[in-house]
Structure formats: structure tokens, C-alpha cells
Amino acid sequence: MNKDTILNAFAEFASGNHDILRPLLREDFVEHSPGNPSGRDAWIAFIRTSPIAAARLDLKRVIAEGDLVMLHYHLIPAGEERGLAVVDIWRLEDGQIAEHWDVVQPVPEPGRIPNGMF
């Protein structure tokens, strides 16, 4: 169930439906990434103005265990070629996202990654 919730939300968000965030996030949502705000309303306002809102998101893999769902994807901001490799970790509680962590890494030139990033 948690995996399906996150996969459906990711697909909706990637297609441009940013309104999917409001019912999905708990009001007391906790963000663990430095510089990003906690709280549903503050986080939604932040995300809507961040480069991810207009980026192409190419999902590579999903891992789900209990209340945690992890997504590994290629985030390509508008106007960029290589983009970023991202791992998001979402903790759900009663069907809503309660917490978020992420790890973000720039995708280097292809010659520097002979085995690929994804």
C-alpha cells in the first residue's frame, strides 16, 4: 500500500500535478534535508518554486519495507543534460507522508562513470 501511494504520487508529480502533495503530506510533515523547510504548507511552497517542479523525473528503482519507501531516479532540470541522481526516502504514517530524507548527486560526464549512474 505505501509503495503504491508513493508510486502514484511520483507519477502525478512528474506529470505536473503538484496539487497531489497537499493530501499526501501530514500537516506536521518533517523534512530532514538541510535548507528545506518542514511542515506541509512550507514544504509545498518550497517545492513549487524549486527546480524539481519543472524537471523531468525518470524513475529507476523502488524499494519498500514497512513504513519506508525509497525511490532512486534521474532528475533532469529544464535546460540541463546530465542532471542529478536522487534517492528519496519517505516514511508514511496512516497513508500519509510523515518524513522525508534525500541524497542528491550530480551526474558526471559519461567517461567518469564507466558502469553508469543508474
State the share of residues found in helices, binned by percent: 10-25%
Please tell me the overall pLDDT.
96
Q: Describe the largest sheet.
A: 5 strands, mixed
Q: Separation of termini? A: 26 Å
Cross-sheet strand order for the largest sheet = 1-5-4-3-2
Which percent band covers the strand fraction?
Answer: 35-45%
Q: What gross morphology would you assign?
A: globular
Which sequence of SSEs, written as H and E, runs from N to C? HHEHEEEE
Count of helix runs: 3
Low-confidence stretches: none
Alpha-beta classification: alpha+beta
Question: Can you offer a commentary on this structure?
Answer:
- The chain is an alpha+beta fold and 118 residues long.
- Helices cover 22% and strands 40% of the residues.
- It has helices spanning 2-14, 21-24, 40-48; strands spanning 25-31, 56-65, 68-76, 84-93, 96-106.
- It has a 5-stranded mixed beta sheet.
- A hairpin with a 7-residue loop joins β3 and β4 (84-93).
- The longest helix has 13 residues, at 2-14.
- The two termini are 26 Å apart.
- The mean pLDDT is 96.
What is this entry, summarized?
This protein has helices spanning 2-14, 21-24, 40-48; strands at residues 25-31, 56-65, 68-76, 84-93, 96-106. It is of the alpha+beta class. A five-stranded mixed β-sheet has the order 1-5-4-3-2.
Main features:
118 residues; alpha+beta; five-stranded mixed sheet; 3 helices; globular
Topology of helices and strands:
Layout: H1 2-14, H2 21-24, E1 25-31, H3 40-48, E2 56-65, E3 68-76, E4 84-93, E5 96-106
Parallel strand pairs: 1-5
Antiparallel strand pairs: 2-3, 3-4, 4-5
